[in-house]
Amino acid sequence: MSLTQTQLATVLEALRRAQGELAAYLASCDHDAELTIAKLVGILERREVVRAARLLNTLARAKAGKRGPRNAPGQGKARELTSPVPATEGLSDRTRARAIPA
Questions:
Q1: What pLDDT score was predicted for residue 16?
Q2: CB 14 within 8 A of CB 51
Q3: Of the candidates 12, 56, 57, 78, which lies 20 to 30 Å from 44 by C-alpha distance?
Q4: What is the Cα–Cα distance from 30 to 95, expressed in whole angstroms?
Q5: How far apart are the first and last CA of the chain?
Q6: Mean pLDDT to the nearest integer, 75-85
Q7: What is the dihedral of CA 48, 52, 54, 58, to 10 degrees?
């Protein structure tokens, strides 16, 4: 297995474990968000996972720079982040509660 394949396997395994924790959280009657977040951080912030993700990101940027456009992901102008939750500014508390999905 090459270095890149090893790094990809490390990241994919971390994502699989994180998805499992999220599924367990959603299936549970007792939603403990703090514990779930701590578990996710524990999975995704492991030294080898962070290293592997950084290496893969560096390789992806290098490939995009060689044959891709200047505004390839991670290069050029920064894109604005948007939230999937509708803006609730200026809404009353009753309206705000309906605007935010459960």
A1: 98
A2: no
A3: 78
A4: 27
A5: 43
A6: 50
A7: 150
The rounded distance, in Å, linking the Cα atoms of 75 and 69 is 9
Q: Of 32, 10, 98, which is closest to residue 2 (Cα–Cα)?
A: 10
pTM: 0.59
Q: Which 8-state DSSP code applies to residue 82?
A: -
- Nearest Cα neighbor of 32 from 24, 44, 43 is 24
Q: Are the C-beta atoms of 65 and 75 separated by less than 8 Å?
A: yes
Cβ–Cβ < 8 Å for 11, 56: yes
Judge whether 49 and 43 are in contact, CB under 8 Å.
yes
Average pLDDT, the chain: 78
- 30 is written with which tokens? 């007792």
Tokens of 20: 């499992």
